[in-house]
Amino acid sequence: MATLELQLSPHRSHVRTARLVAGALARQVGLDDIVVDEVKLAVGEVCSRAVRLHEQHAPTTFVVVTFCDQPDLAVSVRDACPVTTAVSADMGALPVATADGAFGPALALAVVAGLVDDVAVEPDPDGSGGTRVMLRWPRPRAS
Amino acid sequence: MDLSVSTRTEGDRTVVIVAGEIDVYTAPKLREQLIDLVGAGSYHLIVDMESVEFLDSTGLGVLVGGLKRVRAHDGSLRLVCTQERILKIFRITGLTKVFPIHSSVEDALAATD
Q1: pTM summary value
Q2: What are A42-58's pLDDT values in tens digits?
Q3: ipTM of this model?
Q4: Is B71 an 8 Å CB contact of chain A?
Q5: Fewest CB within a 10 Å sphere: which of B20, B39, B55, B92?
């Protein structure tokens, strides 16, 4: 079963909460400080993307963040927004900034792909029509 | 809000001191400050990131937006950052090639390129 699940109403102020929870769990499983920071950044990026999509397309629906700490630290972020372009975790070229310099949600995934070895992006298996992003970090092995 | 922005002028440069977390929620505050500065005629900005505890891609977007705005007036935007955990996101996105990054405000003030 999941260790912990957050349902975020799509307000940007909640992304920090998800980051802090991710950081707390990452420390609990014994990841070192540098990796804890990476976990917080990656989870924050994925949640920011989902919240921004929900603001536009599903403002009354939760973004669901699920954490498991066994066998590894696994975090999944599910959103309910259909994307018309293929969602890819490939780095590829950075998305072009809009006129005022604001990058869209695709940059968040590009950052995540650069930070996390184990990223999976797929249609939400719960059939919401949105996307599930899974991030995974191996637990440190006992020495 | 977990972000504070203050400014001071040094000749024709403006030092923008940012403290706290720059994320999807707080980044608009920094964006507005940069827009106001450029609107008021400050085209040479030095953004001191040494007290920034967190920076995400939204924050990067705001900095890129600031850079584009000052460049439209032949200005400059330099960063001061020695924190590896903040520099990391610039490296991952290749933006270390876009922003001049200095190890101190003094260094940034002395730069002429």
Answers
A1: 0.89
A2: 999 999 999 999 998 99
A3: 0.91
A4: no
A5: B39
